[in-house]
## 1
Amino acid sequence: MRGDGIHDGDLLVVDRSLEPALGLVLIVALNGELTVKRLEHIGHRSYLTASNPRYRPIPLTGQEAQVWGVVTHVVHALGGGLA
């Protein structure tokens, strides 16, 4: 999700009280595995999309998906300090 400013090792602040909505970045348990994706509609279907165009949209139809929360903030480490 680098195109959304999310990099490996970043900390994500997730609000579980927010309702998932189109265009928001979500934490989703998809078939038992956690993923960070944006919720989008393509045609009349809902998909999870990555900011990297090399990854195809994931249709939610026929998938076991549970939204864990909406990402509201990203925290980057500044390097050179304690991790």
## 2
Amino acid sequence: MSDVAVLSNSQLNKRILSVIVFTFFCYLSVGLPLAVLPGFVKNQLGFSSFIAGLIISLQYFSTLLSRPQSGRLADRLGPKRVVMLGLICCGMSGVLTIIAALVRHLPMLSLALLALGRLFLGIGESFSSTGSTLWGMNIVGPMQTARVISWNGVATYLAMAIGAPLGVMLNAGFGMSGFAGLIALMGIGGYLLANSKPAVSVSVGERIPFHRVFSRVWLYGMALGFGTIGFGVIATFITLYFASRDWHGAALALSVFSLGFVLVRLSFGRFITRFGGLNVSLVSFLLECLGLIIIWQADSALLVGGGAFLTGCGFSLIFPALGVEAVKQVERQDHGSALGTYSAFLDLGLGLTGPVAGLFIGHWGMQSVYLAAAMMVLGALLITLRLRLQSTRR
């Protein structure tokens, strides 16, 4: 990458966006069902809130289990191949969701097909997003890691912001086959587009065992996982929260969260390089915690929207800020493994959110999950404080 040093900001961004587009396809596929599936599982198939949350969370568990493998495969085979595999898996999730909608008169079969589709989508997410990020890091160089991760997040939550209301609209107009068909088409189109792009060379050098990668990045991942729970309770339960209080605009609350996320990522992403990832993370966790407390105490849909916006602002820089610090712990040939392992904690946080929050709702009501999430974010802040103290001692 000898020409990277002389590229302008716009040229660097153009290179990054040329591969981050696959992250957009992936997370648009993730966002489209979010505001529709919980209601379908509960109201049309007749299952409980716990099962509705579990169906959403299956995707995150699938991503969790496949994320470390996606990073190691990208280190060995190259990120292009991993991205292509991920996009095919995303497309398969759309096909299975279409079939599930067609057999809704058989609730158990429909639920099983939805579950299988969520598993495919989870694998597609881990392969597409990890591969795209590593692809971007390879084409602009390691000095631009923060920029690549930041742009990857912009693509992620812009797609989520578009996906939630678009999924509702397509479901209203065409049924579940509307948004599921779009997911299948994006999988095919994304695969063909990725196949047309040149591959990048794989970094050579002795790679350290997985357990050593894990030991170097797990605290960063733990803080990320705790901080992700705020997003998880909004993404998974905000539609049921609104319904429980006879409010409208749940999909809009998801979009407002994503709007706050994107605005902060675009406006303040450079702060990670200027002030350091750990310092930025501390401020971010404070904002996220405040947003969740506002949602917990809100007595109107407007206040929930304000809390969701603030939560999105706080959550925005956590992944890149901690991620930059995490990948510094290993050599370049292990960046994919470190990134995949670190990212897996995000999936762990999201995967646990659905069923655990469902149990909270059953015992203490819908609002309780937002207070519990705020407490977990405070835990993330304490872990980050520990990491910051460790870094000052070196």
